[in-house]
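User: I'm curious whether this sequence folds into something compact or stays loose and floppy. Could you predict its structure so I can see for myself?
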Amino acid sequence: MSTTDTAARGTRGDGTSSRPSGPRSPLSAAMGFAGRHAVVVAAIGSLTYLLLPIAVVILQSFNKPAGRYNTSFNEFTLSNWTNMCAAGGMCDSVVLSLQIAVLATIGATVLGSAIAFALVRHRFRGRSSINMLIFLPMATPEVVMGSSLLTLFVSMQMRLGFWTLLIAHIMFTLSFVVVTVKARLSGLDPNLEEAARDLYANAWSTFWRVTFPLALPGIMAAAMLAFALSFDDFIVSNFNAGNEVNFPMFVWGASRRGVPPQVNVIGTLMFVVALLAVVGGQWAAAQRHRNR
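Assistant: Here's the prediction. I'll summarize afterward.
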């Protein structure tokens, strides 16, 4: 075979050189795959980064630790799930956290939704200033907010305990509810309400049959956010709880002498409940979209 024929076989019809064919090394193949699927690889890596701590929590909930510290998996057991209240004081702290979170969610959702409706649907003096001030509690460090609330309660001679804890939780979750509901209301089509009024619906019927159902997804999202923030709060609670101990404060106190594995059980249950709530919401939204 001549040199001219060999050069002709290695050249494409458009005059560019063809790539040499041959077996590729595993490393080269892996790098090529990563290059072609960079976005997917980055997404999988990010999800792994996010979910790995949750996987550890679930795994450690089935662990029978060898000593006081539940840091390495020793032996599989179901006793942590069948005896969730074995750790003294833990269930009481969970009950207190649930009570505070439910009441704070109801209070913050009602007040925050009312503020959001007022800011979006009404024009009044000082509206722009309130729109700006509503973000201040979100931007304030929790240490500053917690110490300021403590100063306020002490100056008012209020006894620290359940009610001061509830007032503090409603206060710091209120801004998140206002912002979430306001974003939902701002995206609603005002022509729907005008159409209802054109059909002789009064103000209450227009609100109850048109505005409220459309705003309900935003209100529910705000309520779920407020519940999660309240149940998870430690810093503001630590300043204003007095002798009360909620679940984050119990975990912080237990960490000094070894966190009991039942804490992982509570964490796993919270994750499962949150996952079911999200899946249920997505399923309900899909059903509504299908029935339209």
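Summary: Residues 90-121 form the longest helix (32 residues). Confidence is low (pLDDT under 50) at residues 1-18.
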